[in-house]
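Let's sit down with a protein and look at its sequence and fold side by side. Go ahead whenever you are ready, and we will take it from there.
>
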Amino acid sequence: MELNDDQLLRYSRHILLPAVGVAGQERIANASVLIVGAGGLGCPVALYLGAAGVGRMLLADGDVVDLTNLQRQIGHVTAAIGENKAVSLARSVRAINPEIDVRSIDRALADTALFEAVAAVDLVVDASDNFATRHAVNRACVQLGKPLVSGAAIGFSGQLAVFDSRRANSPCYHCLFPDHADEPELRCAEAGVFAPLVGVIGAMQAMEALKYLAQVGDPLIGRLLLWDGLQAEARVLKVPRDSACPVCGQAACQAG
């Protein structure tokens, strides 16, 4: 799809960037993205991707908007309390950019439905809040060969990584965080989360997704970014691929 005159004006600040230009913006406009989770991380991701002109977006979340969400989940308004988060967030994205195709999936994705949703897009953003979903999304992305932008935030700390099992230097989520289903995990309802933190991590997820789609810059592959909001410090750790990983390792690939 070529950009029309209105789109050239709407996205002109992208187009002015030599690394993006018209070609990069057209790649964004022709791309499709699945965002798993329409909460603290999913809100800024969806709003920025929508504003940036990603042509088609799928938003998936089975939860409803609660009063306690409004402190940080900027894609929802008070009037949306009790409404499904994916539906509420899709409406907010359309208000920013009515030209793009935004579809909501008002249930948690799992099994066949998850694989179908991942297969239907060019890139996946994991904005979920639990390990079970993150591992399920990772498995689907590895098996279907889709790039994955993963983020997490709790308290004052966040993390970000990009995975693409098609690249030899890319680990998968399981390489970093092996699946221990019986281990307890902290939730925002128990540990709290500083409101702007999810905006910081979500905005970085959106940036990595747009870089990947526009084919600009160096994606955060093989690296894990750790953000300490209290100290305003970032660390980037190199993370190798685990050849023994049961999801993306050599044995798993041969079995697949």
